[in-house]
Amino acid sequence: MNESKKIKVLIVDDSAVIRQILSQIISNHDDMEVVGTAADPYIARDKIKQLSPDVMTLDVEMPRMDGITFLKNLMRLRPMPVIMISTLTEAGAGITLEALQIGAFDYLPKPKENLGKGLFEYEQQIVEKIRAAAVANVQRLELNSLRSKSDAEQERPKIASYAPKSDYIIAIGASTGGTEAIKEVLLGLPANCPPVVITQHIPPQFSASYAMRMDNTCAMNVHEATSNQKLLPGNAYIAPGDQHLILRRSGGGLVTQLLDTEKVNRHRPSVEVMFDSITELGLKKTVAVLLTGMGADGAQALLRMKEMGSHTIIQDEATSVVWGMPGAAYQLGAHKEVKPLESIAGRLLQLTNKN
């Protein structure tokens, strides 16, 4: 590959060991290079000016200035794709979700020195995310950053003359950029909305924190899904990290079920698994939405939903952080509609309103 075409990566971490591990991983790939490393944000700030990196990895916890404060400054002054390197703990989850809200592209757990067999999978993840970050919609990340300041001030929706059709459900799948995209959709839905089932690619330590944040922000009740929850209007159910979420019939209604079965499309939870469970039950009164995300998880299953008779919507490229999953669905013709993110909640209400 031409040297000038390489993705330029800046690594910012106070641990020399982490900087070395990440540098070694990135240097194994011909299409990317580490142009610099920094032990703290002050050094990083100077190196950004000197080196003009395409992508930055950023530690959350650092001396002199924490990663969140630095990210806020960066997204205001010099927006760029940032991959947060975070600890997969409950405390780390809250900070990382805040980073995504501020405009971070994505996140990865801190690499361990003794990764062993897990090193290959970790390497695959980081290079895939760097490649996606290098072509990410930076304007969208910047917009997320601007919107995050006003989340607390957003009023819960008051929809005139909305009466939901009976037996309808809404199913949403997303990956990279999805935590903020899902929030945008849920913020636009009223407390009497049909039940919503959601699969977002997320690690197990993060899904509970994410569901709690959504519950505190949205008019609907938002849960981290457990098995045997009855699907009820006004409730949203988010697949827990590392478990597939499917639907099944029980007592004349629908309930959630969690599965520990194999990963599908390299993911658990997988959007495809959730969508296919809806198709298998013949639930034509489903509006299915595929939002921003890397890869193609859910695209084939969305086509099967469309063929069954469900109404299918994909997020458009202009408002997606990464047009991977919705783009794959578009190529298959799995969509009935392509919509900008800002219009999706309103369209869901139109499609499920009996008035």
TrEMBL record:
<dbReference type="GO" id="GO:0000156">
    <property type="term" value="F:phosphorelay response regulator activity"/>
</dbReference>
<dbReference type="InterPro" id="IPR008248">
    <property type="entry name" value="CheB-like"/>
</dbReference>
<dbReference type="Pfam" id="PF01339">
    <property type="entry name" value="CheB_methylest"/>
</dbReference>
<feature type="active site">
    <location>
        <position position="201"/>
    </location>
</feature>
<dbReference type="GO" id="GO:0008984">
    <property type="term" value="F:protein-glutamate methylesterase activity"/>
</dbReference>
<dbReference type="InterPro" id="IPR035909">
    <property type="entry name" value="CheB_C"/>
</dbReference>
<keyword id="KW-0597">Phosphoprotein</keyword>
<dbReference type="InterPro" id="IPR011006">
    <property type="entry name" value="CheY-like_superfamily"/>
</dbReference>
<feature type="active site">
    <location>
        <position position="297"/>
    </location>
</feature>
<keyword id="KW-0378">Hydrolase</keyword>
<comment type="similarity">
    <text>Belongs to the CheB family.</text>
</comment>
<protein>
    <recommendedName>
        <fullName>Protein-glutamate methylesterase/protein-glutamine glutaminase</fullName>
        <ecNumber>3.1.1.61</ecNumber>
        <ecNumber>3.5.1.44</ecNumber>
    </recommendedName>
</protein>
<feature type="domain" description="CheB-type methylesterase">
    <location>
        <begin position="164"/>
        <end position="355"/>
    </location>
</feature>
<keyword id="KW-0145">Chemotaxis</keyword>
<dbReference type="InterPro" id="IPR001789">
    <property type="entry name" value="Sig_transdc_resp-reg_receiver"/>
</dbReference>
<dbReference type="GO" id="GO:0005737">
    <property type="term" value="C:cytoplasm"/>
</dbReference>
<dbReference type="GO" id="GO:0050568">
    <property type="term" value="F:protein-glutamine glutaminase activity"/>
</dbReference>
<feature type="modified residue" description="4-aspartylphosphate">
    <location>
        <position position="59"/>
    </location>
</feature>
<keyword id="KW-0963">Cytoplasm</keyword>
<dbReference type="GO" id="GO:0006935">
    <property type="term" value="P:chemotaxis"/>
</dbReference>
<feature type="active site">
    <location>
        <position position="175"/>
    </location>
</feature>
<comment type="function">
    <text>Involved in chemotaxis. Part of a chemotaxis signal transduction system that modulates chemotaxis in response to various stimuli. Catalyzes the demethylation of specific methylglutamate residues introduced into the chemoreceptors (methyl-accepting chemotaxis proteins or MCP) by CheR. Also mediates the irreversible deamidation of specific glutamine residues to glutamic acid.</text>
</comment>
<dbReference type="InterPro" id="IPR000673">
    <property type="entry name" value="Sig_transdc_resp-reg_Me-estase"/>
</dbReference>
<feature type="domain" description="Response regulatory">
    <location>
        <begin position="8"/>
        <end position="125"/>
    </location>
</feature>
<dbReference type="Pfam" id="PF00072">
    <property type="entry name" value="Response_reg"/>
</dbReference>
